[in-house]
Amino acid sequence: xxxxIRRLLQAPSVILLLLWMIVPLSMTxxxxxxxxxxxxxxxxxxxxxxNYEFFITDSAFFPALTNTLLLVGSVLIITVVxxxxxxxxxxxxxxxxxxxxxxxxxxxxxxxxxxxxIWKNMLMNPVYGIFAVIATAFGAEPxxxxxxxxxxxxxxxxxxxxTPFALLIFITSLQSQDTEQQEAAQLxxxxxxxxxxxxxxPHLSRSIAVVIMIQTIFHLSIFAEIFVxxxxxxxxxxxxxxxxxxSQALLQFDVxxxxxxxxxxxxxxxxxxxxxxxxxxxxxxx
Length: 286
What we know:
Elements: H1 2-31, E1 34-35, E2 45-46, H2 50-57, H3 61-90, H4 97-105, H5 112-123, H6 130-137, H7 145-148, H8 150-175, H9 179-187, H10 192-203, H11 205-219, H12 224-229, H13 241-251, H14 255-284
Antiparallel strand pairs: 1-2
Helix pairs in contact: 1-14, 2-14, 3-8, 3-11, 5-8, 8-11, 11-14, 13-14
């Protein structure tokens, strides 16, 4: 009887979760196989895989796919390496460590749109941005980051915001590590690198896998930074899959093709996350 009561009490949340996930996914799958363009109202006609074919053969598809993989890969490398280095530095006690932790973690709580505006107007502006002022002070020509290096600019923005997330996960994991093993290894003559390689890194393997999985899911759908700063340009130089889907849906009003792109993005996210986690697990677990 108690089991039935527990299931009955859990049922509303489970049903709500299923509706929250299944209904949008089902609608996306449905729209991806029908001809649905908002500029041409009329009865929806079954198109099979034509929308998928149109999305994949679009001239912007391969640049967007390449930019997406470069963006995700670069941000993952930067945030994991930099986050791990910062976590190791602030894991040791020093005066003002609490304030330093708060300052290092705070960029993660800035909204992506605000983050993009800060970098676009305050830092990377070629006329009055901080980088331009520094370059001019040293007699160098200011760089128009968003025009000359659009994808690199997006990578820098996203990395700056997501490094605190990796730092927070790593510092939490480091605080749970057994210090007696480290002290015993150091007494036996192990170097700092050996302690890090054979004790600290395996201890952080699950945390690194969690950071990679969560960030991969979010970075595959980066949109605000691109929309606010480069608009996907120049050309397709900073267009990723999320921005391409947005362009198909809200600029070209082709819901069918955009839905096909959404399904493709879901499949890609699962494939990338699966292989990344397996690779990290094999390389870090001793």
